[in-house]
Amino acid sequence: MSESKAVRGPRGSKADKRTSLPTFYRQVVAELRKVVYPTQEQLVTYFLVVMVFVLFMMAFVSALDLGFGKLTFWIFSGRGTQ
To answer: At residue 37, does pLDDT exceed 60?
Structure first.
């Protein structure tokens, strides 16, 4: 198994330096060039899938809320003891 190169030594070592702002900016731009953005068709598909899921979950949670509310009122209204 290969060792992780993320930790190179103790945190307090003097070898740790902050990256300069121009270097940071270049690294950010280089990473953003690697990003693969979805096509418009994929974006529309993802949007529709998320919207259908959210609407389903809203309906499901609303039905549970209504059911538990009615059950609670039925139990505490005194009808459950007769």
So the answer is: yes
Q: For residue 78, is it left (φ>0), alpha (ψ between -120 and 50) or beta? A: left
DSSP the chain: -PPPSS--S-TT-TT--PPPHHHHHHHHHHHHHH--PPPHHHHHHHHHHHHHHHHHHHHHHHHHHHHHHHHHHHHHTTGGG-
- Tell me which residue has tokens 């609670």: 72
HSE toward the beta carbon, residue 5, CA cutoff 13 A: 1
Is 79 in contact with 70 (CB distance < 8 Å)? no
Per-residue model confidence (pLDDT) at position 12: 58
The token duo for 55 is: 């609407």
* pLDDT above 70 (res 3): no
